[in-house]
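Notes, Module 5: Reading structure tokens.

Key idea: the token line is not a picture. It is a compressed description, and you learn to read it the same way you learned to read a sequence, by spotting repeated patterns. We will look at two proteins. The first is printed below with its tokens.
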Amino acid sequence: MSQLVILRHGQSTWNLENRFTGWTDVPLTDLGVAEAKAAGALMADIEFDIVHTSLQTRAISTANIALEEMNAGWLPVVRHWRLNERHYGALQGLNKKETAEIHGPEQVFAWRRGYTTPPPALDLTDDRHPAHDRRYHALAPDVLPATECLADVVDRMLPYWFDQIVPDLRSGRNVLVVAHGNSLRALIKHLEGISDEDISGVNLPTGAPKLYTFDENLVMVTGDYLGDPEEIAAAAAAVAQQAG
């Protein structure tokens, strides 16, 4: 029975500052490094065969630190932009609570958690647009987002799930995916059959591995966090309150 573990990166500098991060590349904090190490310790008994990450530093660093903790730094790692965080458009870099004070909590909740409500888009000339980041220079311009709602993330993440991760699982490999709050929420929505409305209430803590097992038809059998359930619940609640 194949196993899949999904792991949101450890705390980043903009998580600490309560900013919308999106595709902005920011490093881990000291706490984020500690969370990555703790995640590695929790996953130490799982014999992974392959790792998938986004192209963003906070996910890559988390994967590297966790693998080192597991003495598994030799594992093959595949990185892909389709696992990147949701693009928050013109909100990127803004403080979440301050944005809620300006635009109102209902509007910010719709931007953060509304399934089909994207934030204001970036202009192509804005330095924050991914067209100006060399890691995406080979991609067709029309796939680069200027903003995304969660439905957009589902649409761009699922092809990677079906074309890259599913074949790994079907071949009997144990897979680790290290990514972001929203790209992993998109995957959870698919795996657990969560509705468009209910996915707004799903919040992923940083550095908390979640283990899925599947039957021979790749139907989910179990999906549970590793670690202390009370600590994970408290961390998830804190994520929900980031915009006040």
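Here is the second protein, with the sequence above and the tokens below, as before.
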Amino acid sequence: MWLELVGEILQQPLGMSRPHEEQVLDLLVQSFNGACSTRNCVRHEWENHLLDCWPRKYIPNEPPGDYDFRQQPLLRWYAFTGETGPQSFGRVPDTLASSSLKRVWEEIAGPFGITHHLSIPLQTGGGDHNAYLIHRPDRDFTEQELDLAKLLQPVLSGLALHLKIAPLPPGASLDGSAQDLTCRELTILTLLSEGLTAEALARRLSISARTAGKHLEHIYRKLDVCDRLTAVQTAYELGVLKQRPPVALHDSDRENRTR
């Protein structure tokens, strides 16, 4: 199903498509036996924004006004560890989010039947934390489901760039043939920016080393560079990739971590 959806989307012009966004969210629900799925963005000020939801209006668009998202367990996991891979609510250790913090969030999410969550961050650069989340009421996500999320992460990140879910920063522009980078090439650039070698990204994307090499050749030609380090730096300068600074933590957060 995912191959069919990706093929269909990549045949369309670049740009956001509401039906395609709904298809991605719906397929996440099906793939993980979820009650609903959402796309969220958390800004530096710890403002949580629900950007899309499937099924429609399953949960409120606006987060609870009196809740301090610095205490949300999954967000604490990403802020404190610096990890960028998928993670489930139930796997956040008590050292980062105590049982009382988890209970508070469960009381908020419980009425909507979404006490268990699996987050798949979009690896698209930038300073905000963008992620797809799958929610369900009855049980934590299995190791097999976490492995599936890891396989889907680069696919979802590439689709986000293709659908312009992750827009370029203000004032940035693409010049020359850099505009012709394909969704796959953008995904490979993202992986290169994370420090993966050609062999490692070939394994991550389940392609041959020769195919990965061909993709790199095309990227180098379009960016007018001759090595992967220069390719990543040029991509940042052109705005093809957006640098993601760490989420700033308040002093109280650091104190909580050390307790």
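Summary for the second protein:
- Residues 167-176, 245-258 have pLDDT under 50 and may be disordered.
- The first strand starts at residue 36 and ends at 42.
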